[in-house]
Amino acid sequence: MPIVREETPEDHEAITNLNRLAFGGNEEAELVDRLRNTTLVVVSIIAVEGTEIVGHILFSDLPIEIEQGVIDAVSLTAMSVSPKCQRQGIGSALVRKGLDICRERGKSIVVVLGHPQHYPRFGFSAELAKNLFGPFSGDAWMALGLKKGALDNVKWTVQYPEAFGVLNH
Predict the structure, then answer these.
(1) Structural domains in the chain (count)
(2) Is the CA virtual torsion 108, 114, 119, 120 positive or negative?
(3) Are 78 and 28 contacting, i.e. CB atoms less than 8 angstroms apart?
(4) DSSP category for residue 134
(5) Element (H, E) at 27
């Protein structure tokens, strides 16, 4: 299993190349770069096999507005695994380690726009996201509470920061 560690500036070019390879284009790589140029990155970790970066995951701040103020939530923004290393548990290891670090850093909620067959194994649920209003909905829009009761019985508005380039409602 690869070594999982936080990224360093020396890793940025390899992460950009990995994102391009894994997603077949520039969109995810550019999003990661835009977030790095802000103060929004909460966790950015990589999986390294030998000297090669074979996986990356990034969690970023995602303000959720409620009547009493703003909740300290994060978005699982980007996850990539080298195509030659997929289905070997690298992505799962990155998600689990990233969620642990988010908990350690005091975050209470994580949202993701991702594959409904993949993320529920980590506790993400479209049902938990049904009261989070923003630019996304449906089975791919999922949430996970990192603190007990974090998503209980409240309707909240999710405002993606400008770096995401998405339309907020």
Answers:
(1) 1
(2) positive
(3) yes
(4) S
(5) helix 27-36
Which residues are 55's β-sheet partners? 47, 81
C-beta neighbour count of 61 within 10 angstroms: 17
Check: CB of residue 10 under 8 Å from CB of residue 51: no
Domain of 87? 3-164
CATH of the domain at 60: 3.40.630.30
* pLDDT tens, residue by residue, 10-40: 999 999 999 999 888 888 888 888 888 888 8
Q: Answer yes or no: is 142 within a domain.
A: yes
Tokens of 141: 């829009």
Angle (CA) 17-19-23 rounded to 5° is 125
Does residue 32 belong to any structural domain of this protein? yes
For residues 146-156, give the mean pLDDT: 76
pTM of the model: 0.89
